TrEMBL record:
Its EC number is 2.7.4.3. ATP binds at G15, G17, K18, S19, T20, R111. The lineage of its organism: Eukaryota, Metazoa, Ecdysozoa, Arthropoda, Hexapoda. One of its GO terms (cellular component) is nucleus. Monomer and homodimer. Interacts with small ribosomal subunit protein uS11. Not a structural component of 43S pre-ribosomes, but transiently interacts with them by binding to uS11. This is Adenylate kinase isoenzyme 6 homolog. Its main location: cytoplasm. Residues 110-120 are annotated as: LID. It comes from Parthenolecanium corni. GO terms for biological process: ribosomal small subunit biogenesis; rRNA processing. It is an enzyme of class 2 (transferase).
């Protein structure tokens, strides 16, 4: 059965602009934003804390169990800095945000991350780990890379996602 609305995954290394893009897109379409990091905290889907990187460890199975019943119906924008553990059937499109290393370094420094955490994330971006993870986990035809270094890029990216949603509704004849 086709969903009434599609599900969208916005992924990428921390700091590439996922939350900013989601909040802007949500001003234009009536979708629900599922921020996996926040939901994991509020619904007790964490399995510990990484003391070195100063970040909680996600209980992937638990969050899937929690969200599966609500994601199936569609109309969700899911945001997380990883993507290989979500069920493939959840998503109609996957956008991977990318940012240049020096820009990303500055954003993460500004965020107050420690040096190890900054280095690991910048390396993750250099090796395009999340893009490869997405390409390996989903049909490559539904995976798109979006460069997000400055405000012009952000404007383009908002338009790309909103246009994609509108195009989907035209093709399926369903309203967003
Ligand atoms: N295209 C952009 N141009 C300039 N600054 C940006 C852009 N996208 C995001 N930022 C800034 O970078 C920082 C990280 O963005 P955020 O959306 O929180 O990233 P993520 O959700 O991927 O961790 C924020 O301070 C945000 O304002």
């Amino acid at each position: 059965m086709t969903r009434a609305k599609p599900n969208i995954l916005i992924t990428g290394t921390p700091g590439v602009g996922k939350s900013t893009l989601c909040s802007e897109v949500l001003k234009c379409v009536d979708f629900e934003w599922l921020e996996i990091s926040k939901i994991a905290k509020s619904r007790d889907c964490l399995s510990g804390y990484d003391e070195k990187l100063h970040c909680p460890i996600l209980d992937e199975d638990k969050i899937i169990d929690e969200l599966d019943p609500i994601v199936e119906s569609g109309g969700k924008i899911i945001e997380y800095h990883g993507c290989d553990f979500f069920p493939e059937r959840w998503f109609d499109v996957v956008f991977v945000l990318r940012t240049n290393n020096t820009v990303l370094y500055d954003r993460l420094k500004e965020r107050g991350y420690n040096d190890l955490k900054i280095r690991q994330n910048v390396e993750c971006e250099i090796f395009q780990s999340i893009l490869e993870e997405a390409m390996e986990s989903y049909d490559q035809k539904i995976v798109s890379e979006l460069h997000n270094n400055d405000t012009k890029d952000m404007e383009n990216n908002i338009k790309t996602v909103v246009d994609w949603i509108n195009e989907w509704s035209k093709i399926t004849g369903k309203k967003n």
